[in-house]
Amino acid sequence: MKEKVIRYAVSDFSIKEAFEIIDLLFERGYASSCLEKNSRWIVEIFSGEEITESEISAILRNYRFSKIESLELTGINWLQKCFENFRPITVGDFYIRGSHMRSEAAPADKIIMEITAATAFGTGEHPTTSSCLIACQTFFDEKQHKTALDVGCGSGILSIALAKLGARHVYAYDNDEEATRISRENIEINRVTSRVEVIKNKNCEFDCRLYDFVVANILADPLIAISNAITSSLKEKGILVLSGFMSDENDVLQKYLSLGLKLKFRYDHKGWVTLVLKKAERRLANGTNRI
Fold first, then answer.
1. How many domains does the chain have?
2. What is the pLDDT of residues 60-101, one digit of tens each?
3. Could you tell me if residue 128 is inside a domain?
4. CA dihedral defined by 186, 21, 78, 183, rounded to 10 degrees?
5. What's the rounded Cα separation, in Å, for the pair 40 and 57?
6. At what angle do helices 157-165 and 177-189 cross, to 10 degrees?
């Protein structure tokens, strides 16, 4: 599919700002990417229609930025280009590839996951996603953890991982229509539809289910805002994996510790944090653990 595409590049962001902007552009329906140059980050915005500087300024009104260029790109097969740029990656025991690479040989000792290559959101390359995958691989116990919840599932990659690790029932929540569509597509590609249910929820509302294992890879503010609901949805002795915030953001950890959870492990990767917490057993009046 060859068509005219406008590339609008803006720069001078921190890594945190760059990935926040990627998420913001995704919500507005723009394709985008980011790259590092001289310790600062450049965000590239792609559109089939002309993008004015005032439109970009309105979207990025909370960020200071410098314009690099606005360039019209023609004669390029963008779908093919996307396929070429999405190369397989290995994260722990997971081998993640585009569905277009199914015919190519994959490592026999890895858990294979296929993610739609045309979707850059949630392919395992972001530090928080890769750390969450490692945390799931390390702390998920197939014998103990039957039910799982993925809050803000995005591409569905963490839900798929949990299903392939042995979770019997995974509930994948997201408040974005496009994310739920992509998740369902990827779940079907990976043949785990019998184990994963995708649910669109508008306000991060939770049902009455209790879960053995919960993962939430979203931003710090919503993690704090729904901390009571997430904690209440976790079974006793259940595992909670939280990510989507930077190393200097300590409010998330303090909030969940104040709700009685215990920190089991902390991953720090490229300035991003992933926390693994556990919900303690309630004790009876005589001080013994509840049976």
1. 2
2. 888 988 876 777 666 555 545 555 555 788 999 999 987 666
3. yes
4. 10
5. 19
6. 40
Q: What is the mean pLDDT of the chain?
A: 84
DSSP bridge partners of 214: 149, 240
| Six-digit token string for 207 | 């049902």
The strands making up 169-174's β-sheet, listed across from edge to edge, are 196-200, 169-174, 147-151, 211-217, 234-246, 272-279, 261-269
241 and 160 housed in the same domain: yes
What span, in angstroms and rounded, lies between the C-alpha atoms of 171 and 211? 9
CATH of the domain at 190: 3.40.50.150
Residue 127's domain spans which residues? 122-279
> Per the structure block, which two tokens stand in for 221?
């503010």
Same domain, residue pair 257 and 156:
yes
- How far is the C-alpha of 216 from the C-alpha of 131, rounded, in Å? 12
User: pLDDT grade, residue 291 (50/70/90)?
Assistant: very low
Rg (CA), the chain: 20
Which candidate, 37, 46, 45, 47, places its Cα nearest to that of 13? 37
Using alpha carbons only, give the angle 202, 146, 186 rounded to the nearest 5 degrees: 50
DSSP 226: T
**Locate tokens 């959101």: which residue?**
121
Residues 274 and 152 in one domain: yes
CA distances from 240 to 110, 119, 149, 196, 264 (A): 24, 27, 10, 18, 10
Dihedral angle sign, alpha carbons of residues 104, 105, 108, 110: negative
